[in-house]
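Entry 14. Ran structure prediction on the chain below.
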Amino acid sequence: MGATHVTVTIRNPALPNKSWEGLFLVDTGAIDSLVPREHLESIGLKPKAQRIYELADGSQLKMDITTADIEFMGDLVGGTIIFGKTGVEPILGVTALESVGIEVDPQNQRLKRMPATRLKPIKRKV
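Output, structure tokens:
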């Protein structure tokens, strides 16, 4: 399976003219989005709290978080952003995707807009 990337702009909600744009890996296994710390600090964002995240290997890590405006594919959503280490690849998490009604098409690994944003989870027939 290939990787899906999308251009994303992160904006400081208190100073909307302050923003950073980058190419993000779309990660449907990640709840929140992640941006290297230096880019968040460059637009005036500071940590608001810390949260414990479970990594792919099962280990846990306490990380700084903030909130910001996340803009991609013509849509804007507010979301939780994790302060990543310098040089780490930015990640667009599933919360931001679902909040604006976008999902990954598993056949061609492209983002596609749903006809409507889901208000609740889809019930699967057993």
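The radius of gyration is 15 Å. Will compare against last week's run tomorrow.
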